[in-house]
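Much of our argument rests on the idea that a fold can be written as discrete symbols. In the encoding step, the backbone of a single protein was reduced to a row of integers, each denoting a local shape. This step matters because it turns folding into a mapping between discrete strings. For completeness, the protein is quoted in full, as a sequence line and a line of structure tokens:
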Amino acid sequence: MDFREFDELASHREAACAWIEAHVRPEWVEEQRRSGTHQTAELHTLLARDGILAADWAPEYGGSGVDPGFARAVFDELGRRGLASDGWSTTSMVLRTIEHVGTEEQKREYIPAALRGDRLIALGYSEPDSGSDVAAAKTTAVRDGDEWVINGQKMFTSTAQLCSHVFVLARTDPDVPKHKGLSMFLVPTDSAGYDIQPIHTLGGQRTNATFYADVRVPDSARLGGVDGGWGVMHVALVHERSASSPGSDGGSLVGDLAAWARAARRPDGTTVLDDPLVAERIGRMAVDEEVTRLLALRNRWRAQKGDLPGVEGSMWKLFATEAAQRHSNDVLDILGPEGVLAPDAAGAPAGGRFEEGFRAAVVGTIYGGTSEILREIIAERHLRLPRNR
């Protein structure tokens, strides 16, 4: 592919910035930081109203006809300005999974409502005793006629307090190997027996524990076949690993660091950037940023061809998250003690974004598939190397 022809962000950047200047309030960044929830209801309403959420969808499911390149540029620019839409990110991933494995009735029930901004979906994978080993789920779903009765607990159900549904992985057959006895359900958060408790992290973010006590859902809430949940989960994870926005993963952080190094003065009057070792590190970070962007563009290219993103998504996720960890260490080396000043600390460089980036980078290689798992996927499916287990 010719990356120059496919890089729609550059051509739509000006229009995206104009839309943001006209509609987005700067205080929303601070509100997200203060609440610990990276989703703003007013922003989501605007994105839905102007068809930005629905830009990449077919008309029969509520597609708006808005240029997908413009929509991606808007989300990319929002990310550069510190505004996230985590609730929409998880929702979009589930919608793409419904598109690939759902029934026609499920597609028409869930997709248009979400594109109108009326529905958000959280992820119900992790549990207290399983963590990244989601196939070890103990939450159960037992069939009772045309319904399923769900019991169990999920952890790290982020943005669930804003969501209409949770995408729940549950065990439907306890007598088969753990990967084979799982099914996926779309559980309404207004169901009897559903409960949610907030969990506030040391970093100031909010996530949730969600509880399911004899929660009943119709069989139509099951996505994919009975005991076929692991295959559905695979589709969802492929989309999660491919849900990349070129330039949004650390691009502004590198720019912030370069700006700080250009302005910060040493006792001898030189700038921090005058140090060749510092300049080399920032240059290396910029190269990583460009590689991340190109890997993301390749994912976009595959998606626009109508292909289910494959190993390319794993490549992007592996490179981007490990680069973020390298960068966060470089940032702290260059800034010294100032680099760990939190956003609410006086004099924090770049408003505390460096400290936030350091914390986020630590878990980045765990969410959506650990680096070890991704290396195995790349080795087995792309390089055709033998399985190591």
